[in-house]
Write a structure and sequence with these properties.
The protein is of the alpha+beta class. It contains ten helices and six strands; from the N terminus they run H-E-H-H-E-E-H-H-E-H-H-E-E-H-H-H. The protein has two domains: 3-78, Winged helix-like DNA-binding domain superfamily/Winged helix DNA-binding domain (Arc Repressor Mutant, subunit A), CATH 1.10.10.10; 96-188, Arc Repressor Mutant, subunit A. A hairpin with a 7-residue loop joins strand 5 and strand 6 (150-154). Helix 1 crosses helix 3 (40-56). It is elongated.
Length: 190
């Protein structure tokens, strides 16, 4: 690679990083393309290069991707420092019912409230409302059946909060069951 090509790529990486930094919300590849004037495939390679740089250097930033949206976020390992700096309390943990419901939705999405309740065996309206209010789940569509019930799925915020780049990074259910965190067969039924 020539020195000129290296210089251009460094400038493009810097511009990409700056755009992600100033964006208040996740940004689509199309919007990044418009701003940078680059082909989608090349821009995706730049995003991978930038993320690899953050990871390899164990930096405090990461790039998260979900549903065609990219966002610059802090690395999960920095959470305690950020909480301390911002004066946040980590006392707002999720209840056992909320974690159970969130696990069911994460592994079975898209899923209806009724299906969650059938797995849990209890009314889950309040827990689902709490998870929505925290931005961890959202309506992702409607089921093609009588009444067209709402389908729920996890959000970009869910990935961010749990330090995941995508849903493929969720641990296998067998690992969770072995750790005693849930009864995997209950999640898989229906």
């Amino acid at each position: 690679m020539s020195e000129n090509t290296n210089t251009i790529m460094r400038e493009q990486l810097a511009a990409l990083e700056a755009l992600l930094f100033v964006a208040a919300e996740p940004v689509s590849l199309t919007d990044l393309q418009k701003a940078l004037g680059l082909e989608a495939s090349y821009l995706e390679e730049l995003l991978k290069t930038l993320e690899a740089s953050y990871s390899e250097q164990e930096r405090g930033l990461r790039i998260f991707f979900q549903s065609g949206q990219y966002q610059l976020v802090t690395a999960p390992i920095t959470a305690p420092y950020i909480e301390k700096f911002l004066g946040l309390h980590s006392g707002s943990k999720l209840s056992a019912a909320a974690l159970e419901t969130l696990t069911i939705i994460a592994y079975r999405q898209p899923i209806t409230r009724q299906a969650v309740e059938a797995i849990r065996g209890v009314d889950s309206t309040g827990v689902i409302n709490t998870l929505q209010a925290r931005g961890l789940i959202e309506e992702v569509g409607r089921q093609e059946s009588v009444g067209h019930p709402v389908l729920f799925g996890t959000t970009f915020e869910f990935l961010h909060q749990f330090g995941l780049a995508n849903l493929k990074e969720l641990p296998p259910l067998k690992e969770l069951e072995e750790a005693g965190n849930l009864a995997a067969p209950d999640i898989l039924k229906l």
